[in-house]
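Next up, a specimen:

>
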Amino acid sequence: MVTARPDMMLRNPDGSICLLDLKTSRPDGGGKCFLPQYAIQLIGYSWVTEKNGVGKVGSAGLVYCSVDIAEFMKDPLGFMVNQGFYVPFEFITHEVTLDYPRFFKCLEEVNAVWQSARPPAGKNGCKDCALLTKLCDFESDLRITDQRTAAQFPGRAKWTVQQDFFRQNTRFDPTLIEDSLGEDPLDQEGGMWSNWDFS
């Protein structure tokens, strides 16, 4: 099932829909990193909009909304109101090409990964895959070191178990994320989990 909660849907002069998604990040910062995901998100929103008979989506785009710090610093007290401060924003737009075959390919990939018994192998040259491999290797090295310590010093066997328990206990349980998705206001309002903004 594919669902959509676009931020803005505007009517173009020709009657088609302009679908917009607002992002609270800078295009050259976190926005640049997540641009491929943001684009797929918008293409998906557009496809759902059309398939549900809302109307023909003629255009789609991102609107990056960030605080204009330079403008604010010129006269901070000038932005003071009775309730506190308001801040000036700058808006940068980025048009997204509605490439539905690209969206379908992503759905196929997601479904294949979801149905697979184990995670897929990484791709050569992928920086994220390399980082994940280093992380997993680091974890394996820690456990191997603990096992060697327990083998050489039997009296420390309990300590090695405690070390492993401590490492597991200090990490955020991913199942808690799944359990909280239905009630999490951040997810409900902004779709933040799908964009990995909290990773």
Notes: Strands lie at 8-11, 17-23, 57-67, 80-81, 84-85, 89-96.
